[in-house]
Amino acid sequence: MASSDLEDLCFHINTKISTIKKTLQLRNIGQEPSLKSMLCKIGHEMVLLHDLLNKMEMEVQQQEKLKNLLKELQKSAERDQNEARHLRENIPPHLPKPTQSCITGITVKCEERTKVVETERTKKPTKETRLIKEAALITAEEFESVPAYMKGRLTYDQINSVVQDMNKAVVGKYKILHQPLKSMNAAVRNLYHRFLEEETKDTKGEFFIVEADIREFTQLKVDKRFHSILNILRHCQRVREVRGSRLVRYVIC
Asked: How does strand 208-209 pair with strand 239-244?
């Protein structure tokens, strides 16, 4: 046997012996109680490191995909740019012009369309829209500013519910007042005349209702709680009272 083969064999045997010694040392270290916690910690950190490496590998793969998509997008944009440049540089010097018959036809159609629109406007006169004034809802800040003796157990929602019902009565009343008399039946005409009789010089140009209107157009009960809420609405300047002829008129502010 050659000397080189003997040296290689000795080196291999020595390497094996060294590996066995290190293995025995590590086994002995793992059996020592003082080092078990450290080895467990190292094992846990190795698991976390392995998970982190997996996440990094996935992120690298996603970035690679994104890079490829961006490259494709860049190529597509370059193709479009080249095509647009080619079209701009190769515009025909003499484009076909529209014939006189086409121009005449377009002009006639536009004139006909204009006449139709003008005819519709003359047939349908614009109706004058009459706005009906409504009371604004109470804000949270206004509700907090109302004195406690005035609020009692009334809630914010209860007060605004009454405001909405009063607005409903106002809209119902003034829709009738804005109607032509010919379109009214007997019952509506009676309401119309009552509304006119309730007008006074103090309510001219104002929007107001009376308790009969609330009963007519809403399901709201005109009771003690209603009048307590009216006091709050007067305090918040949503309504004011105009009295006369044994009637209380609630004017919308």
From this structure: unpaired
Q: Are 120 and 195 in contact (CB under 8 A)?
A: no
The 10 Å Cβ neighbour count of residue 219 is 8
| 151 within 8 A of 232, measured Cβ to Cβ | yes
Is the whole model's pTM more than 0.85, yes or no? no
Using CA atoms, how far apart are residues 166 and 218, in angstroms rounded to an integer? 8
For the chain, what's the residue count? 253
Query: Rounded to an integer, what is the distance from CA 181 to the centroid of its chain?
Result: 44
Residue 9 CB-density burial (10 A; 0-12 exposed, 13-18 middle, 19+ buried): exposed
* Sheet of strand 208-209: strand arrangement: 208-209, 247-252, 239-244
Give the whole-angstrom CA distance, residue 162 versus residue 28: 87
Q: Tell me the per-residue pLDDT of 104-152, one tens digit each, with 9 for 90 and over.
A: 555 656 666 666 556 656 555 555 677 899 999 999 999 999 999 999 9
Using alpha carbons, list the distances in angstroms from residue 167 to 4, 228, 252.
112, 18, 9
Alpha carbon distance 203, 241 (integer Å): 10
Q: Which amino acid is at 144?
A: E
181 is written with which tokens? Answer: 């008399």
Eight-state DSSP code of residue 219: -
pLDDT in tens, 165-188: 999 999 999 999 999 988 999 999
Query: Which DSSP string corresponds to 107-153?
Result: HHHHHHHHHHHHHHHHHSPPPPPPP---PPPPPHHHHHHS-HHHHTT
Would you put residue 99 in left (φ > 0), alpha (ψ -120 to 50) or beta?
A: beta
